[in-house]
Amino acid sequence: MSIRALVWGENVHERTNEVVAANYPHGMHERIAEALREDAGITATTATLQEDEHGLSRAVLDNTDVLLWWGHAAHGDVADEIVERVAERVWAGMGLIVLHSGHFSKIFKRLMGTSCALKWREAGERERIWVVNPRHPIAAGLPEYFELENEEMYGEPFGVPEPLETVFISWFQGGEVFRSGLTYRRGAGNIFYFQPGHETYPTYHDATVGQVLRNAVKWAHNPQAPVVDVTDAPNVPVDKAPEKIEERGPKLHKAGDKGLR
Amino acid sequence: MSIRALVWGENVHERTNEVVAANYPHGMHERIAEALREDAGITATTATLQEDEHGLSRAVLDNTDVLLWWGHAAHGDVADEIVERVAERVWAGMGLIVLHSGHFSKIFKRLMGTSCALKWREAGERERIWVVNPRHPIAAGLPEYFELENEEMYGEPFGVPEPLETVFISWFQGGEVFRSGLTYRRGAGNIFYFQPGHETYPTYHDATVGQVLRNAVKWAHNPQAPVVDVTDAPNVPVDKAPEKIEERGPKLHKAGDKGLR
Amino acid sequence: MSIRALVWGENVHERTNEVVAANYPHGMHERIAEALREDAGITATTATLQEDEHGLSRAVLDNTDVLLWWGHAAHGDVADEIVERVAERVWAGMGLIVLHSGHFSKIFKRLMGTSCALKWREAGERERIWVVNPRHPIAAGLPEYFELENEEMYGEPFGVPEPLETVFISWFQGGEVFRSGLTYRRGAGNIFYFQPGHETYPTYHDATVGQVLRNAVKWAHNPQAPVVDVTDAPNVPVDKAPEKIEERGPKLHKAGDKGLR
Amino acid sequence: MSIRALVWGENVHERTNEVVAANYPHGMHERIAEALREDAGITATTATLQEDEHGLSRAVLDNTDVLLWWGHAAHGDVADEIVERVAERVWAGMGLIVLHSGHFSKIFKRLMGTSCALKWREAGERERIWVVNPRHPIAAGLPEYFELENEEMYGEPFGVPEPLETVFISWFQGGEVFRSGLTYRRGAGNIFYFQPGHETYPTYHDATVGQVLRNAVKWAHNPQAPVVDVTDAPNVPVDKAPEKIEERGPKLHKAGDKGLR
């Protein structure tokens, strides 16, 4: 059974900037989806900001195993309600891959709980991505490093929590370094942040980048059934306690009360 | 120079519930502050939900090294703007200690990026808190375990990110376990979650709990100057790059542009 | 292609202790292998201390994807050379699952770099294993907790490094807690420690324990090619540096020298 | 009360190589100790390979709060017994700072449980050390980055466990990156690995490097009493269990038995 990947694209610069339009004539999301489809085990569809509910209805999310997210110019236009919906779907087990400028997307900031800030420079400089965790599933089939001749520099410090694992660290020609591949688990959801992908450069046409994306989708996929009611805080009544106990002491709640939140 | 601790109390049940009022006649925040003052190196003040800006004005936060947070009945009444202000202050370096039902406070959920959900039972059962990280600063001076004869059960799974360190794990009489002492670092801020503290039980009158709180304040204190502009994503112009590079390739931004966010 | 699991058994108490012999008439290793074989995707063989090279020749290890380790009475009889061989195979990508009293095996202590000490009590008490990381691959298909009516108590503090992930925490009838399911990655090798398995109790006849073992084998399996020369520290000569540089400054090594170690 | 730092130097190249002798006429260990003494709160002494017990007798270690380790040419000459003694002292609470080529020292490999391998090149190239964890105690007072005009390249992948925290990442002129400042906790001991320090370059004369070393000593210091009998696995008899239980089921051990190991 194939993995159902959904590539979410902001789809703004592709329509407003000539360079980006020429680079990704069908949109960045379509190019990324195309790269994913090179793996027969992945079914890739797309959704964009401009669609109803940004293309992220409950029904769509319920049928998504791994969501990829690219945004840059319009983070603020994503509805908070949809962000919360995606976050809960991640906690329930959907994988999430956040790309490049998505570091400042509402959903990434929501899930990290940090500033997600970094340094940047748009100078078309060389980036060399080093594999620091050999044989990690996301680095499968990769050489010890690969290069992108033109990328946007993203520099440390990167305002994210200490990751579960550091998979890639990048060297930039201008002298900076960046943790360009980081994994997290939030609830039952696997999250991967991958730094390359500036819209004016041909990054998503690169074969190795495509390999990383396909690897990441497979890594992020949690095949188990989603967690139900993932934000619930269930009461365990005294008579349902695993060990027999007697209630004692002063109480705040009456039997059957829901917890406060 | 002493550590400036600020104990934030929701201060609702102390005024509306007779049991809690009798247990903490001056409020839970005052009792906690009193426990902190047993250490001459800590200056403890208090703030409550009912005050202007919930007692958490910029000026107050700028003069706070470590914030302790107890809330339960009125998480929803805390203004989002204040929550964001506290989060940024944590990223800049303020320590944060979240107590008991504060697991569902807006600030804790904001900083964890997860559900923060758990199981619970109010039965006055025995809790035994085991030190799993001996000689951790937060466990300084503690025996291998200590007991609270009456506590609210909080049970796993606890919907939080994998912690930096697990300091305490609790055994409950009714058969559950809980990671009752967890550390995190978010930006320059040290965060500690500590599970005991149900308002109808005498937890904050317990000497060992007081020791944990004092230890935690000292551990969470970051004596360095706060990070300035902690959410900024500074551009590094080509002529300021650490290594000499020449700009090349197509560009999205013009010189002097601010980054998109 | 099936996963090649190898179950290593010390095979001492099965032959010297009547209770253990009756409990596991074909040896613990055979019972564990049998449990693994319930999954058609796993091929399980066994090896024991008494065999030549303890059944862990280079050829055998090269054809092993995941090694399971149970030992107790004869940790000291395992040859250091074999331990080192297994460690290098783990770094190269072989999975390792360490069971129960294997916490004090040479291989586990070698890979953890810590004391691996713990508390214990052999009283046949009830153990309740809680899933603290729902939908983790190792917890696939499990209920929120499961019980073993008779197990040896292992108690905190457990002298191991902070894990990559905590999957299980156990509650013991006598009042202790224990982190009973922990994951680590060392080099390209995935490691799982699982606490249950005292030889006088019927633990490896338990269906849920069997499920955990099968899950763990699948989780630990790294399908990528082993890392070659995993302990090598390769020199990168100046003319092979990714970026063109000129050698300068005083030198210790002459061209072609191997590094010191 | 000042922190008792002990700088251990292999002291070989200083006596056999003219360049190193000229660079560090009193030995590298003395230069490092001198840098530590700039902080009035640190008392720094030295020990070398050539001394009896390598200068690391039990009495010396018992009076050491933080040990710094520099070795390169003679790792193999360090007695295994001393390595084990140091490891146990670390687990009991002594801090350990491992410098540069010490990545291949017996003690570092012992505590990491991994290959500790890396790439290297001795070309006198420029290294730029970036702070990726601002306001971490080890980065106190540091700029966002600092440079060493001549250093040995150490390149990823670095064969170490995922660290507790990544404090520094280095950029090298020749195109590599390296995680040059990593923290670990093993037992009650805090461990810091710091990459710079090739013996033919003036690294330990650098003011910022000195600041890092002093910061690291203060960070690594655990002021609590050492853990006693840190490798013991104590039995908890049935009548000493925290909760009253009755013994049941078949047993391997008789009352008063020591555990197997």
What is shown here, in short?
4 copies of one chain form a homotetramer. In chain A, 22% of the residues lie in helices and 28% in strands.
Question: What would you say this structure looks like, in words?
Answer:
The structure is a homotetramer of 261-residue chains. In chain A, helix 5 crosses helix 6. A 9-stranded mixed beta sheet of chain A has the order 2-1-3-4-9-8-7-5-6. In chain A, a hairpin with a 4-residue loop joins strand 7 and strand 8. The longest helix of chain A is centred in the last third of the chain and has 14 residues. The model of chain A has no long low-confidence stretch (mean pLDDT 97). Chain A is elongated and about 70 Å long. Chain A is built from 7 helices and 9 strands. In chain A, 22% of the residues lie in helices and 28% in strands. Chain A is of the alpha/beta class and 261 residues long. Chains in contact: A-B, A-C, A-D, B-C, B-D, C-D. At the B-D interface, loops of B face loops of D.
